Amino acid sequence: MNPAIFIGIDIGTSGVRGSAIDRAGHELASARIPLPDIQLPSDWHNASFDVIRQLTDQIDSVLIQSIAIDGTSGTVMLCDHDGEPLTPALMYNDQSCTDEAAEIAQYAPEDSAARGAGSSLAKVLHLFRDCPDADHICHQADWVAGLLCRRFDISDENNCLKTGYDPIAREWPDWLSRLPFNTALLPRVYIPGNPVNAVDEAAAERLGLPADCQVIAGTTDSIAAFIATGASATGDAVTSLGSTLVLKLISDKPVYSSTLGVYSHRLGDTWLAGGASNSGGRVLLKYFDQARLDEMTPLLKTDKPTGLDYYPLVTPGERFPRSDPGLAPKLEPRPDDDVSFFQGMLEGIAGIEADGYRILHELGAPALNRVITAGGGSTNPAWLEIREQKLGVPVSIAEHSEASYGAALLARSAFV
Fold this sequence. Notes:
Number of domains: 2
Mean pLDDT: 94
Strand order of the largest sheet: 3-2-1-4-10-9
Largest sheet: 6 strands, mixed
CATH class of the largest domain: Alpha Beta
Number of helices: 11
Low-confidence stretches: none
Strand content: 15-25%
Shape: globular
């Protein structure tokens, strides 16, 4: 078998990470560059290309066969024909497009993930009003992939779900034409893991990629993290503990609830039912730096719950398991003891996770069998114990927990 290398790039909420793997799935190289709290598309461009350059410096770059990109779900902007951004990028956690969400609700089916103020489609309608002459709708991963292959009319089934794409029929539905935007802007949708185009000659030369390197259809950051874990059985679930909290459960059928922020992504012959909460690690870092969190973790008393009943959020607004753009953070009363406050926040996030999986089951998804943990928070052993108590099923740490590794597996899937 000829040696080959596959690259995955993850544009996450706080940084860009890259992984290079071989045919057997061994990670040969990795790199990471942080992103600022307030991000511009130029930040994604510079960080992604710098990460690719760092990877090509560590490996035999002539063996690179393909590259796949994942990005935050629901981050979207409008661009011109050449991919130049014409609008601000509205981020994954933006819940401001309430008027547009009401307009969408007049036409979108009840089970559409395009419903709600945080959907990509609501953001597209908002942006289109100020920029009716745009040529392309670009999700975050689409745009960076487009920079590599000079095509900005591309996307994948997972990134397009919240823009109104029908994953069952695998097409853009007719009801989108009733909304006040130009549906010609909608991208051509690829199945994740399918080839899209060769890397542009100029980009290949700039980044040290071979001329025949293929850009492969990517996915969202949470699904890439799911793929990385190797979860495969019905009832297997993956919780991604990053800046935000993302739940995915393997189901034999799609389940939806627009009012609760629940939707299902198609992946192969199965469905990933789940949702994304605005709670997560970003709340912890608002109050403590990482060194302080590491210092306090061994002091946590996981056998003695605090009973603080927190709902940890950085700012008002929640997507799942509650869909409420006005939901206020609940982080009071604050104990004088920092360790108790920290534990209370961990318990609150674990409670949100348990509520999420309970709701998925009530909507028709299979019962939870086990949870595999991915993301930066997976390394906290006390948090794992707290979560196992709340969930009532085995909780383990993924051998591979980085979305970039999952994106690399997607890049490989087109060739193995």
